[in-house]
Design a protein that fits this description.
Strand content: 25-35%
Structural class: alpha+beta
CATH topology: 2,3-Dihydroxybiphenyl 1,2-Dioxygenase, domain 1
Radius of gyration: 20 Å
Strand order of the largest sheet: 17-10-11-12-9-13-16-15-14-18
Number of helices: 5
Bound molecules: fe (ii) ion
Shape: globular
Number of strands: 18
CATH superfamily: 2,3-Dihydroxybiphenyl 1,2-Dioxygenase, domain 1
Helix content: 10-25%
CATH architecture: Roll
Length: about 325
């Protein structure tokens, strides 16, 4: 089944105005009252939690109402409908999309993907001994570079039964486990993408069921640092990062949000195909990241030591 990855996440939120401002400041483009898009058309939709048009909630504090997957073609959508109809209700929506739910009650949508092809450059790096990537007289650093989210990368669920959830995505939807944290959950790659994961699951008590975070890919580590620094400057609270994960190798920077979950910037995730053999590790700080930094205000030589408190603060 050629599922490419998440096209859209739908949230039912308490504070629509705060979420609207947050998603715009994060770098998504507001294309309607409730929809916010990355450069390729994938995105986030929000509505007030009492909006009758929203699918029902998960019965926890999570605000996630629906995960909509983009598929390569209508044949894939129809194949998924046939598969899921064997043991659950599948709604046909007016645009050819379908709606159903997984074995843990997460509402899922499947549609022909809205992703538009992107033609953008990646971060270019020169290194002694390697072929030149960035040309002579081409300047790498641009303070005003856009650093915008390019595409919806992945969503992470808190689940009360990771084994049951994994079985559903692998056996019914053709996802592949690329790596695993023992007793925690799998990183899952659908068949229509080479991205290390578009879904990761973390085993938690049932009352925590929901969305832990979602993230969009940026153009490279410099874009990630730039976007994150701008987000901090706008007053948003860094939760974890910047750093670089081990499984997936993606650069990360997580922030608190009013959407009831963390929101991440990510960049440069590993790609895999069916020849990849999944690794397994115990969860822990060393397994989770290669390194971790913490944001500091800018500094220049000649000033007080970086990070030193201003005398007035004592
Ligand atoms: Fe992530």
């Amino acid at each position: 089944m050629k599922i490419i990855g998440p096209d859209e996440l739908v949230f039912g939120v308490d504070d629509v105005a705060a979420c609207t401002q947050y998603l715009k400041d994060y770098g998504l483009r507001q294309v309607s009252e409730r929809r916010f898009e990355a450069l390729d058309g994938t995105g986030i939709s929000i509505a007030h939690r009492d909006d009758a048009a929203l699918p029902p909630g998960l019965g926890t504090a999570s605000m996630l109402r629906k995960t909509i997957y983009g598929c390569a073609d209508q044949a894939t959508v129809d194949a998924i409908a046939s598969e899921l109809q064997k043991d659950r209700e599948v709604k046909r929506l007016s645009n050819g999309a379908i709606e159903s739910e997984d074995d843990l009650g997460f509402v899922l949508g499947f549609q022909v993907t809205v992703r538009r092809p992107l033609r953008l450059s990646a971060e270019l790096v020169n290194a002694p001994g390697a072929a030149q990537q960035r040309g002579v007289n081409a300047v790498a650093v641009d303070q005003n570079a856009p650093a915008l989210p390019r595409t919806l990368s992945h969503v992470v669920y808190f689940v009360p039964d990771a084994a049951k959830a994994e079985a559903f995505y692998v056996e019914r939807l053709g996802f592949v486990c690329t790596d695993r944290f023992t007793g925690v959950g799998p990183f899952l790659r659908p068949a229509g993408t080479t991205d290390h994961h578009t879904l990761f699951m973390i085993q938690t008590p049932p009352q925590m069921k929901g969305c832990e975070h979602f993230t969009f890919h940026l153009g490279g580590p410099t874009e990630l640092m730039l976007a994150g620094s701008r987000f901090v400057a706008k007053g948003y609270e860094s939760f974890w990062g910047p750093g670089r994960h081990k499984f997936g190798s993606n650069w990360f920077w997580y922030f608190n949000s009013p959407l009831g979950c963390h929101v991440e910037y990510d960049a440069d995730m590993d790609l895999h195909d069916d020849h990849w053999i999944a690794r397994e590790a115990a969860m822990g700080a060393d397994a989770s990241q290669l390194f971790l930094f913490q944001h500091r205000e800018k500094w220049a030589p000649g000033g007080p030591p970086p990070g030193a408190r201003h005398p007035a603060a004592h």
